[in-house]
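pasting for ref
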Amino acid sequence: MKKIVAVTTFSLTLILACLSVAAQQQTPSRDDVVKQIETKRAEIAALEPQLLSISDSDKQEFAEFTAQPQTGLIRLLPREKYTKLLTLSGGGGYYSFARSTHEYGYGSDIALESGMLSVGFAGADYGMLFNLGDLPLDQATAEHRAVRALLDYTPPTKETDVRKMQQQVWQGIELSGMNFKNRSSARVGNTYVVRSISFERSDLLVAFRLLREDTDGSFILAFKVLKKFSTPDLERTRTAANN
Protein backbone atom coordinates (compact mmCIF):
# COMPACT_ATOMS: atom_id res chain seq x y z
CA MET A 1 0.00 0.00 0.00
CA LYS A 2 2.79 2.37 0.96
CA LYS A 3 4.51 1.53 -2.29
CA ILE A 4 1.38 2.40 -4.28
CA VAL A 5 1.02 5.72 -2.45
CA ALA A 6 4.66 6.55 -3.04
CA VAL A 7 4.40 5.74 -6.74
CA THR A 8 1.22 7.79 -7.03
CA THR A 9 2.80 10.76 -5.23
CA PHE A 10 5.85 10.57 -7.44
CA SER A 11 3.69 10.41 -10.57
CA LEU A 12 1.64 13.43 -9.52
CA THR A 13 4.79 15.38 -8.71
CA LEU A 14 6.23 14.50 -12.09
CA ILE A 15 3.04 15.53 -13.88
CA LEU A 16 2.91 18.87 -12.04
CA ALA A 17 6.55 19.49 -12.83
CA CYS A 18 5.92 18.78 -16.52
CA LEU A 19 2.89 21.08 -16.54
CA SER A 20 4.93 23.82 -14.89
CA VAL A 21 7.68 23.49 -17.49
CA ALA A 22 5.12 23.49 -20.30
CA ALA A 23 3.47 26.61 -18.90
CA GLN A 24 6.83 28.34 -18.69
CA GLN A 25 7.59 27.36 -22.27
CA GLN A 26 4.22 28.66 -23.48
CA THR A 27 4.62 32.07 -21.79
CA PRO A 28 6.82 34.24 -24.04
CA SER A 29 9.47 36.43 -22.51
CA ARG A 30 9.11 40.21 -22.53
CA ASP A 31 11.76 40.41 -25.25
CA ASP A 32 9.74 38.00 -27.37
CA VAL A 33 6.61 40.12 -26.91
CA VAL A 34 8.51 43.25 -27.96
CA LYS A 35 9.79 41.48 -31.05
CA GLN A 36 6.25 40.37 -31.94
CA ILE A 37 4.99 43.96 -31.58
CA GLU A 38 7.83 45.28 -33.74
CA THR A 39 7.05 42.67 -36.39
CA LYS A 40 3.36 43.54 -36.46
CA ARG A 41 4.09 47.28 -36.59
CA ALA A 42 6.42 46.65 -39.52
CA GLU A 43 3.64 44.71 -41.24
CA ILE A 44 1.20 47.61 -40.67
CA ALA A 45 3.77 50.14 -41.91
CA ALA A 46 4.20 48.09 -45.08
CA LEU A 47 0.44 48.27 -45.73
CA GLU A 48 0.09 52.01 -45.10
CA PRO A 49 1.28 53.15 -48.56
CA GLN A 50 -1.54 51.08 -50.06
CA LEU A 51 -4.06 52.83 -47.80
CA LEU A 52 -2.74 56.23 -48.91
CA SER A 53 -2.42 55.36 -52.58
CA ILE A 54 -4.43 56.84 -55.45
CA SER A 55 -6.38 54.47 -57.68
CA ASP A 56 -5.20 53.87 -61.23
CA SER A 57 -8.47 55.26 -62.57
CA ASP A 58 -7.92 58.54 -60.67
CA LYS A 59 -4.35 58.76 -61.94
CA GLN A 60 -5.47 58.22 -65.52
CA GLU A 61 -8.35 60.68 -65.27
CA PHE A 62 -6.11 63.47 -63.97
CA ALA A 63 -2.92 62.57 -65.79
CA GLU A 64 -3.06 65.72 -67.92
CA PHE A 65 -3.46 67.90 -64.84
CA THR A 66 -0.67 66.25 -62.85
CA ALA A 67 1.67 66.59 -65.84
CA GLN A 68 1.71 70.33 -65.12
CA PRO A 69 4.41 71.71 -62.80
CA GLN A 70 3.71 72.14 -59.07
CA THR A 71 0.64 69.89 -59.15
CA GLY A 72 -0.32 66.62 -57.54
CA LEU A 73 -2.98 64.15 -56.55
CA ILE A 74 -3.19 62.89 -52.95
CA ARG A 75 -5.48 61.13 -50.51
CA LEU A 76 -6.25 62.53 -47.06
CA LEU A 77 -7.42 60.04 -44.44
CA PRO A 78 -9.83 61.04 -41.65
CA ARG A 79 -7.48 61.59 -38.71
CA GLU A 80 -10.01 60.52 -36.07
CA LYS A 81 -10.32 57.09 -37.69
CA TYR A 82 -6.72 56.18 -38.44
CA THR A 83 -4.47 58.02 -35.98
CA LYS A 84 -4.52 55.11 -33.47
CA LEU A 85 -4.55 52.41 -36.11
CA LEU A 86 -1.52 53.33 -38.18
CA THR A 87 2.16 53.69 -37.34
CA LEU A 88 2.28 56.85 -39.46
CA SER A 89 2.34 59.94 -37.25
CA GLY A 90 -0.96 61.77 -37.73
CA GLY A 91 -2.74 58.74 -39.19
CA GLY A 92 -2.56 59.99 -42.78
CA GLY A 93 -4.79 62.95 -41.94
CA TYR A 94 -2.06 65.54 -42.56
CA TYR A 95 -0.13 66.57 -45.66
CA SER A 96 2.80 68.86 -46.35
CA PHE A 97 2.75 70.32 -49.86
CA ALA A 98 6.24 71.66 -49.26
CA ARG A 99 7.73 68.25 -48.45
CA SER A 100 5.29 65.88 -50.14
CA THR A 101 4.67 63.82 -47.02
CA HIS A 102 1.72 62.71 -44.90
CA GLU A 103 3.99 62.38 -41.86
CA TYR A 104 2.92 64.84 -39.18
CA GLY A 105 5.61 67.04 -37.66
CA TYR A 106 7.33 68.26 -40.81
CA GLY A 107 5.48 71.50 -41.44
CA SER A 108 2.09 70.01 -42.35
CA ASP A 109 -0.03 72.39 -44.45
CA ILE A 110 -3.47 70.77 -44.37
CA ALA A 111 -5.41 68.31 -42.24
CA LEU A 112 -8.69 66.40 -42.37
CA GLU A 113 -10.58 65.55 -39.19
CA SER A 114 -14.28 65.01 -38.49
CA GLY A 115 -15.28 66.40 -41.89
CA MET A 116 -13.25 69.59 -41.43
CA LEU A 117 -10.16 70.85 -43.25
CA SER A 118 -7.72 72.93 -41.23
CA VAL A 119 -4.30 74.61 -41.38
CA GLY A 120 -1.74 75.56 -38.70
CA PHE A 121 -0.96 72.84 -36.15
CA ALA A 122 2.14 73.31 -34.03
CA GLY A 123 4.24 76.01 -32.46
CA ALA A 124 3.82 79.39 -34.11
CA ASP A 125 2.59 77.92 -37.41
CA TYR A 126 -0.73 79.20 -38.70
CA GLY A 127 -2.62 79.76 -41.93
CA MET A 128 -5.79 80.80 -43.67
CA LEU A 129 -8.23 78.66 -45.60
CA PHE A 130 -10.99 79.80 -47.95
CA ASN A 131 -13.65 77.83 -49.83
CA LEU A 132 -13.96 79.11 -53.41
CA GLY A 133 -17.03 76.97 -54.05
CA ASP A 134 -17.55 74.94 -57.21
CA LEU A 135 -14.79 76.76 -59.08
CA PRO A 136 -12.62 74.85 -61.58
CA LEU A 137 -9.15 74.46 -60.16
CA ASP A 138 -7.52 76.17 -63.15
CA GLN A 139 -9.54 79.29 -62.35
CA ALA A 140 -8.03 79.65 -58.89
CA THR A 141 -5.55 82.25 -60.08
CA ALA A 142 -4.25 85.67 -58.99
CA GLU A 143 -7.26 87.25 -60.73
CA HIS A 144 -9.59 85.74 -58.13
CA ARG A 145 -10.15 88.16 -55.25
CA ALA A 146 -9.60 85.58 -52.49
CA VAL A 147 -6.40 84.30 -54.10
CA ARG A 148 -5.13 87.85 -54.56
CA ALA A 149 -5.85 88.65 -50.90
CA LEU A 150 -3.68 85.75 -49.77
CA LEU A 151 -0.96 86.60 -52.27
CA ASP A 152 -0.78 90.14 -50.92
CA TYR A 153 -0.85 89.11 -47.27
CA THR A 154 2.36 89.74 -45.31
CA PRO A 155 2.69 87.64 -42.13
CA PRO A 156 4.07 89.18 -38.94
CA THR A 157 7.51 88.12 -37.74
CA LYS A 158 7.43 88.97 -34.03
CA GLU A 159 6.29 86.06 -31.90
CA THR A 160 3.81 88.16 -29.89
CA ASP A 161 2.15 89.36 -33.11
CA VAL A 162 2.12 85.85 -34.54
CA ARG A 163 0.35 84.51 -31.45
CA LYS A 164 -2.28 87.21 -31.83
CA MET A 165 -2.70 86.25 -35.48
CA GLN A 166 -3.25 82.63 -34.51
CA GLN A 167 -6.19 83.72 -32.38
CA GLN A 168 -7.53 85.99 -35.10
CA VAL A 169 -7.60 83.33 -37.81
CA TRP A 170 -9.47 81.04 -35.42
CA GLN A 171 -12.18 83.65 -35.02
CA GLY A 172 -11.91 84.88 -38.61
CA ILE A 173 -9.84 87.62 -40.18
CA GLU A 174 -11.03 90.00 -42.89
CA LEU A 175 -8.87 90.44 -45.98
CA SER A 176 -10.14 92.42 -48.98
CA GLY A 177 -13.67 92.27 -47.60
CA MET A 178 -13.68 88.47 -47.17
CA ASN A 179 -13.55 86.40 -44.00
CA PHE A 180 -10.68 83.92 -43.78
CA LYS A 181 -10.36 81.25 -41.08
CA ASN A 182 -7.99 78.40 -40.30
CA ARG A 183 -10.65 75.76 -41.04
CA SER A 184 -13.51 74.95 -43.41
CA SER A 185 -15.97 72.12 -44.03
CA ALA A 186 -14.75 69.48 -46.47
CA ARG A 187 -17.12 69.34 -49.45
CA VAL A 188 -16.70 67.26 -52.56
CA GLY A 189 -16.70 69.34 -55.74
CA ASN A 190 -15.40 72.46 -53.98
CA THR A 191 -12.11 74.22 -54.58
CA TYR A 192 -10.12 75.75 -51.74
CA VAL A 193 -7.15 78.06 -51.39
CA VAL A 194 -4.82 77.84 -48.39
CA ARG A 195 -1.94 80.01 -47.23
CA SER A 196 0.16 77.91 -44.85
CA ILE A 197 2.90 79.65 -42.86
CA SER A 198 5.39 77.42 -41.07
CA PHE A 199 8.20 79.40 -39.50
CA GLU A 200 11.75 78.33 -40.38
CA ARG A 201 10.22 75.80 -42.80
CA SER A 202 7.98 77.15 -45.55
CA ASP A 203 5.28 79.60 -46.64
CA LEU A 204 2.99 78.35 -49.40
CA LEU A 205 -0.14 79.35 -51.25
CA VAL A 206 -1.93 76.29 -52.60
CA ALA A 207 -5.23 75.75 -54.43
CA PHE A 208 -6.84 72.32 -54.21
CA ARG A 209 -10.11 70.65 -55.13
CA LEU A 210 -11.86 67.78 -53.37
CA LEU A 211 -12.59 65.34 -56.17
CA ARG A 212 -14.41 62.58 -54.32
CA GLU A 213 -14.92 60.91 -50.95
CA ASP A 214 -14.12 57.23 -50.52
CA THR A 215 -16.06 54.68 -48.47
CA ASP A 216 -13.76 55.08 -45.44
CA GLY A 217 -14.24 58.85 -45.28
CA SER A 218 -10.96 59.68 -47.01
CA PHE A 219 -10.84 62.36 -49.70
CA ILE A 220 -9.01 62.44 -53.01
CA LEU A 221 -7.81 65.93 -53.84
CA ALA A 222 -5.95 67.56 -56.71
CA PHE A 223 -3.70 70.48 -55.84
CA LYS A 224 -1.56 73.16 -57.42
CA VAL A 225 1.07 75.22 -55.63
CA LEU A 226 0.37 78.81 -56.66
CA LYS A 227 3.35 80.41 -54.95
CA LYS A 228 6.26 79.61 -52.68
CA PHE A 229 7.14 82.58 -50.51
CA SER A 230 10.46 83.16 -48.80
CA THR A 231 10.95 80.99 -45.72
CA PRO A 232 9.61 83.04 -42.81
CA ASP A 233 11.73 83.76 -39.74
CA LEU A 234 10.33 84.20 -36.26
CA GLU A 235 11.58 86.90 -33.90
CA ARG A 236 11.11 85.05 -30.64
CA THR A 237 10.12 86.89 -27.50
CA ARG A 238 13.04 87.19 -25.10
CA THR A 239 12.32 86.42 -21.46
CA ALA A 240 13.81 88.35 -18.56
CA ALA A 241 16.20 85.47 -17.91
CA ASN A 242 17.66 85.90 -21.39
CA ASN A 243 18.14 89.65 -21.07
